[in-house]
Design brief:
mainly alpha; 8 helices; about 140 residues; globular; Arc Repressor Mutant, subunit A; single chain
Length: about 140
């Protein structure tokens, strides 16, 4: 099973775990991550590293072990209010719900997108993220 297949399978499990209402939030986050503004997983990783969360994001990528948690405030610090608001609007939730939701599932989403601790190239990750966004946002 290739990296893309493992990631797709893991994301399907993740979507089931978070359930209905949060799937729009998951889709909106995937759409944001695949945007040119963020630049896929690699761009998101860089944003976290620049804000001093390099060890946190690395824990999400490393296979096994504990995934370090972040808060909604941390998410706003890294992504910025405008991006969080964009995700909230697409998902139909408040900015606070969006930042809290992102904080709860970003570690698991990044973990699923980086099976075996390997960060896929942006083309592969953006394809997976775009499919996820379409699936949950209906776009």
């Amino acid at each position: 099973m290739g990296i893309f297949d493992k990631a797709s399978q893991g994301i399907g499990q993740l979507a089931g775990q978070f359930g209905g209402g949060n799937n729009k939030l998951l889709g909106a986050a995937a759409q944001l991550m695949s945007s040119q503004d963020i630049g896929g997983i690699q761009g998101l990783m860089q944003m976290f590293q620049q804000k001093g969360y390099g060890d946190v994001v690395q824990s999400w990528i490393s296979p096994g072990g504990e995934k370090k948690q972040i808060s909604g405030d941390d998410v706003q610090n890294v992504l910025g209010r405008d991006r969080v608001h964009q995700v909230a609007s697409q998902a139909g939730v408040s900015d606070q719900e969006a930042s809290g939701g992102l904080a709860s599932f970003l570690p698991q989403l990044i973990d699923k997108l980086t099976p075996d601790g390997q960060v896929p190239d942006n083309e592969a990750s953006n394809s997976t993220l775009s499919s996820l966004a379409s699936r949950f946002l209906g776009s």
